[in-house]
From TrEMBL, chain A:
Designated name of the protein: Inner mitochondrial membrane peptidase subunit 1
Source species: Ovis aries (Sheep)
Automatic annotation (TrEMBL), chain B:
GO biological process, one term: signal peptide processing
Record CDD domains: S26_SPase_I
Keywords: Hydrolase, Membrane, Mitochondrion, Mitochondrion inner membrane, Protease
Protein name: Mitochondrial inner membrane protease subunit
Upper classification of the organism: Eukaryota, Metazoa, Chordata, Craniata, Vertebrata
Amino acid sequence: MLRGVLGKTFRLVGYTIQYGCIAHCAFEYVGGVLMCSGPSMEPTIQNSDIVFAENLSRHFYGIQRGDIVVAKSPSDPKSSICKRVIGLEGDKILTSSPAGFFKNHSYVPKGHVWLEGDNLQNSADSRYYGPVPYGLITGRIFLKIWPLNDFGFLRDSPNGHRFSDELGK
Amino acid sequence: MEVQLDELPEYFLWTKYLKVTTHGVDPVECGADVQAKEVSRVGLYMYQCSGPSMEPTIQNSDIVFAENLSRHFYGIQRGDIVVAKSPSDPKSSICKRVIGLEGDKILTSSPAGFFKNHSYVPKGHVWLEGDNLQNSADSRYYGPVPYGLITGRIFLKMKLKSHNCKAFDTDEKLQTWALIMDWSYGAFTN
């Protein structure tokens, strides 16, 4: 009787561990569903939108300019941030206001990316905490799944960033 | 600031050569490159460290074991040796000691210098330094490292000693080493 109960318990624990490992692999290497909060990516991603992120691009170093990525926050490792990649390593970035008279440029250091939110007036991003190491990126958002009236792939940047290999903004 | 530096427990492994595979390890002048081989999914990782930046604690080609539970529960402390993704090259890893946590005051100039420069470690970052200060590219070079880049904490080091190494000279740049099929280990004191 006791042996039967113990056997069932061990089997249950074994299945739980197996499913846990599979889920861990899926979330770590394939992707997951996330809910974004905050106004820093409006109008592309509104508060409480649910999006689907994939984690393969960052493992194969396929993140490109214009991608919206999820990354661990450089100032708080317990939280994540969701911003658009404006510049890759080596790109020349305009750090002052585009309407200003004196324009300050800087280059993105090796192994880092420059992130900016789409809602430039209300976003704490690389203009505040500097370039973000590539290793902090955890995934790339490519699909919005809620609200349903806005279902689909994400739009390009509304801020007029021109992304090409010759020009880096 | 005084940091209690812990020594890693060390075991000698006696191995038998059963199969020889080629395994090239490129030593790096400054900094330690780490190649990760996963042992299991429980959170235990095995690495081989190359480079002189953590001598004498970790020598070139030592094998170390790291666990990643500490970083998930934010239990990394001063004096821990951690493995982190390199801030200047996301494809490689570095292996350094944590000297300061966020908010700590760090001496950034030479300790023997006349003018001492201090700085504070920003929130969400750690200050890493190698044990071999003369030959280590660490936070003194690339600044504080975000906590999110830490992938594991090293808690065990192993040295490999082989029985049947008559075929190999005392050539330090060993290009081939055995695939260990038969482990037997114990603690040896010198």
